[in-house]
Inverse folding.
């Protein structure tokens, strides 16, 4: 009998059955092993597929958030509703598109419910109600000559046949009756500007009126001169009585303007002549004569100012539409620059209504309408007005989500779905000529102090900043990481390797927020004071290390053999520390001798570059310190995995250690080293906290190492908490994330292709 141990029990078996039982046990073990291998393979496969699915899910989510930026505007034309009375010459409406107020030629402001055209309120503003017993003829005169809206506001303007300009403010009061919103119009008393003391009819005029009652009106008089009347209003805090004062000025007009536009600050007056010229009066300079731009040929038929009153929309008789604003010249003066030209309308441009929310506007020519955006240079929509006759009034709603056109046929509404008019591929990646700039530039500046601000969403400064920070950090990380790994793996004694490699890898565990904090608040100010010492270190440290190595080699071999191989690294540490101390001590005399006592001043005078305390050098040092452990660890593994027989064979053939490392080990390990560099590149591209705290976050297009920058990742971290969900900025930040995703994916793909080619090339060594 044989005894077979199964677990803790002994089983007696016949001698002939012992081999059979052992075989069955081996079979059961094999089946368990196969089952375990199969489960492990399924788990690994499922984990890999899960990672791929997660990455694809992130990519799909980002693309879904970015995709609406490419959508065109959608405009839905509503039905025409009949409105009692003569057609309005100017329109304003509330932000909810509930009511519209229009001023007609009979001098009556009619507040109309837009849903059905019902007149809910009427108020006569000119002529004023006649006193009791007055003759009817006296009450009928004078009449309104021309009616127009104030650009981008809720003010109705009109001129009279007796030389006056009227400005009628219209406000909107919003209340709630339980859950129902109630909008009520508040038509104010007209502000009267007497622009022509002789009482002649005013055909061409412009006016601006602020909420506090201050304002001005300009008009072309019958003799060809231009009169400007400014109004100041002061309210008594006790009685509420308003005291007004007027100041009149005469402006020279070499050409008779056919249209005028006055900015709300009463600093600039623009005019367009029938011969095509543009006139610009700088009202703050005290000059009566205008500056004339003679580039136009077709008569100017319409002028309007976009939000902020910096950009001027010019419409001409041939249907041409263009954007002009003041641009600084090389001599410091300003001129009107033709910044953008839009496709022409089929007829003379008669109506222009700017948006009160962005740099968009609506223009009309006869029955044709167009929706435009200035900054993005986009024609968002083009169509025809739903009226049987050409419209007499046009207004873009305060939220830019609709428009109203009025004419003899009634009132019609247009519903506009246009959430991202500011974005085109050119606006996001090309040069744009922004207001106040001398020429087209790449600019990122997403927010401003008011709605008048023009968002600047060019991603090019962020791309350049990302590459700039990456390059400057890799300039430090690649040499130290790769050469340090080569020395540790091929020259250092194994005893010291066990301490050096874990110590360097522990560096990767340092929080980047701590590195950024130290770089921004400790390193940057100290480096500013002793920057010349950094220049000295670049020269002195390699020289001192080489001298120390040469001195070590000249020591007697018997003395050197008393120490383990690689112990000279400790000597180099002390030499490097001494070099850093010596360079720091020599920094003041070196700065006085070479840079005249101040490196920042010398830099500005000699090169025109400014030295910012938080600059690319600081980021290169801090982020290079963070990337070194990754490059070192992967490169060291690549060097260590070179087959020992290759090294032994090279040494046996008479090559020394340095020749073996540079000509055998380094080529063989090059695929792994290249992977280490690419992984370090990806690490630097995605770094956020260091660049966030150590660069100053200035989005500029400049490769200078002495100023800051802003990266894509840091920009997302800074601005995503403030971005309204679904807004243009929100989606632009997701586009920045998509760029990071694509950049990292492209770099990793190229790295893998190159690594495989290097591996095939050196696999036969």
């Amino acid at each position: 009998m044989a005894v077979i141990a199964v677990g803790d029990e002994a089983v007696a078996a016949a001698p002939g059955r012992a081999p059979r039982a052992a075989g069955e046990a081996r079979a059961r073990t094999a089946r368990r092993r196969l089952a375990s291998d199969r489960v492990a393979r399924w788990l690994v496969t499922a984990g890999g597929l899960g990672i791929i699915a997660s990455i694809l899910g992130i990519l799909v989510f980002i693309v879904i958030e970015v995709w609406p930026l490419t959508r065109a505007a959608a405009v839905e034309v509503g039905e025409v509703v009949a409105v009692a009375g003569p057609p309005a010459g100017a329109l304003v409406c509330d932000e909810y598109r509930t009511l519209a107020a229009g001023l007609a030629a009979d001098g009556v402001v009619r507040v109309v419910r837009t849903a059905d055209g019902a007149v809910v309120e009427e108020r006569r503003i000119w002529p004023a109600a006649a006193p009791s017993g007055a003759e009817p003829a006296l009450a009928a005169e004078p009449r309104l000559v021309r009616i127009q809206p104030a650009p981008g506001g809720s003010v109705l303007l009109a001129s009279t046949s007796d030389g006056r300009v009227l400005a009628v403010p219209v406000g909107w009061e919003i209340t709630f009756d339980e859950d129902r919103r109630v909008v009520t119009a508040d038509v104010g008393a007209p502000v009267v500007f007497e622009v022509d003391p002789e009482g002649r009819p005013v055909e061409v005029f412009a006016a601006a009126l602020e909420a506090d009652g201050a304002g001005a009106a300009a008009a072309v008089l019958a003799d060809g001169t231009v009169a400007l009347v400014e109004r100041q209003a002061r309210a008594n805090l006790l009685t509420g009585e308003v005291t007004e004062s007027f100041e009149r000025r005469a402006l020279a007009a070499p050409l008779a303007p056919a249209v005028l536009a006055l900015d709300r600050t009463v600093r600039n007056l623009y005019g367009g002549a029938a011969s095509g010229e543009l006139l610009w009066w700088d009202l703050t300079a005290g000059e009566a004569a205008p500056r004339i731009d003679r580039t136009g040929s077709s008569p100017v038929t319409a002028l309007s100012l976009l939000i902020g009153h910096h950009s001027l929309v010019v419409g001409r008789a041939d249907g041409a539409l263009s954007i002009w604003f003041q641009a600084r010249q090389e001599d410091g003066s300003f001129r009107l620059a033709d910044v953008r030209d839009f496709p022409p309308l089929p007829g003379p441009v008669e109506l222009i209504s700017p948006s009160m929310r962005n740099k968009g506007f609506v223009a009309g020519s006869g029955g044709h309408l167009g929706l435009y955006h200035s900054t993005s240079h986009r024609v968002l929509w083009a169509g025809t007005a739903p009226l049987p006759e050409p419209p007499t009034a046009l207004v873009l709603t305060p939220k830019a989500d609709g428009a109203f056109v009025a004419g003899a046929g009634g009132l019609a509404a247009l519903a506009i779905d246009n959430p991202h008019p500011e974005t085109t591929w050119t606006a996001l990646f090309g040069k744009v000529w922004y207001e106040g700039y001398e020429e087209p530039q790449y600019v990122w500046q997403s927010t401003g102090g008011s709605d008048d601000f023009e968002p600047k969403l060019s991603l090019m400064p962020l791309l350049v900043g990302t590459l700039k920070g990456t390059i400057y950090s890799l300039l430090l990380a690649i040499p130290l990481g790769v050469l340090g790994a080569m020395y540790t793996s091929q020259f250092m004694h194994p005893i010291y390797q066990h301490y050096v490699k874990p110590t360097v890898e522990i560096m990767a565990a340092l929080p980047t927020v701590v590195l950024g904090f130290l770089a921004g608040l400790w390193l940057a100010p100290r480096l500013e004071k002793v920057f010349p010492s950094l220049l000295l270190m670049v020269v002195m440290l390699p020289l001192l290390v080489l001298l120390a190595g040469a001195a070590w080699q000249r020591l007697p071999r018997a003395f050197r053999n008393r120490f383990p191989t690689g112990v000279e690294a400790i000597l180099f540490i002390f030499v490097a520390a001494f070099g850093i101390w010596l360079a720091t001590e020599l920094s003041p005399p070196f700065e006085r001798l070479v840079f005249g006592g101040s490196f920042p001043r010398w830099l500005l005078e000699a090169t025109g570059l400014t030295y910012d305390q938080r600059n690319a050098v600081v980021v290169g040092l801090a982020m290079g310190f963070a990337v070194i452990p990754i490059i070192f660890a992967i490169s060291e593994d690549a060097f260590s995995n070179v087959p020992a027989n290759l090294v032994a064979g090279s040494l046996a053939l008479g090559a020394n250690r340095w020749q073996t490392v540079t000509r055998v080990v380094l080529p063989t390990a090059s695929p792994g080293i290249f992977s280490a560099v690419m992984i370090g590149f990806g690490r630097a591209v995605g770094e956020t906290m260091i660049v966030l705290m150590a660069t100053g976050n200035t989005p500029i297009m400049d490769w200078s190492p002495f100023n800051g920058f802003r990266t894509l990742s840091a920009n997302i971290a800074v601005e995503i908490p403030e971005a309204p969900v679904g807004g243009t900025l929100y989606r632009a930040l997701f586009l920045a994330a998509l760029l990071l995703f694509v950049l990292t994916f492209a770099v990793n793909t190229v790295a893998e292709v190159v690594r495989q080619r290097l591996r095939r090339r050196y696999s036969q060594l």
Observations:
- Residues 18-66 form the longest helix (49 residues).
- The chain has two domains: 80-130+140-444, 462-528+613-762.
- Residues 80-130+140-444 form a domain with the Methylamine Dehydrogenase; Chain H fold (CATH 2.130.10.10).
- Residues 1-11, 129-140 have pLDDT under 50 and may be disordered.
